[in-house]
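Input/output pair, single chain:
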Amino acid sequence: MEPDYNINEMLACVIARDLKDGEHVIAGANALVPRAAIFLAHFHHGPNMRVMGTNVFDFPRIQVGDTAQLFSKYNEYNRRHEEGFDRKTIKKGGTKDAFFFGGIQFDKYGNINMFGVGNDYKHLKFRGPGVIGLANVCTHIRRMYLWATDHTKRRFVEKMDYISAIGFGDGPDFRRKWGLPGGGPRWCITPIAIMDFDEETKRMRLKSVHPGVTVDRVVENTGFELIIPEKVPTTEPPTSEELHILRTKVDPDGSLRK
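Output:
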């Protein structure tokens, strides 16, 4: 039998379980699944979460589909985009616990490229959205969640063309050496697997594979050597309660299923 959920719904549930009541959490523009996960956690077990939005324009709603509009509807407050990444604002109670980072490229230490692909920065083969506020927020946020819409060797590379946001730099001592107070990357979430980071080496490690996915498939589609534990579990599917909240409160129009 086919499961009664799709990959987006499953990942929203997996992410939501890792978010805690009372935390200050934000997802950027166009991050449909992380946004849905934040609200699922808020409705399921986190009534005291501070759910924050970041807007690219001056008006209070980002028109990016139904879940994004719900994000604006349920925000406790909105700030201008640049204010969400300002250190003075953060010290006054802004985003501090968890942030979701997309990326054109990721490396084995969880560093992120959002700038572009190509050796010549004046003539890129592919131009991304740019650094935006990522270079700032990655320094202090307690948990970085890396988010990828596909899992290929083009995205997971041995050496990135540019670095827009620091994960663990070049290894375990990097953040301490440069005085970066944040906790660094926690998970990297993709459509086929979830990776975490080894406590000692800070290298990316396979945490779980999604139902129907093999470890070999993940390895074959990663451009660097992953740490592979002796036993790799299957990612836990959604519960009926999680799906009910997701489909009736967070995503009633089915944006995640489109």
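The domain at 7-257 is CATH 3.40.1080.10 (Glutaconate Coenzyme A-transferase). Helices lie at 7-17, 32-44, 66-74, 87-91, 134-140, 174-177, 215-220, 240-250.
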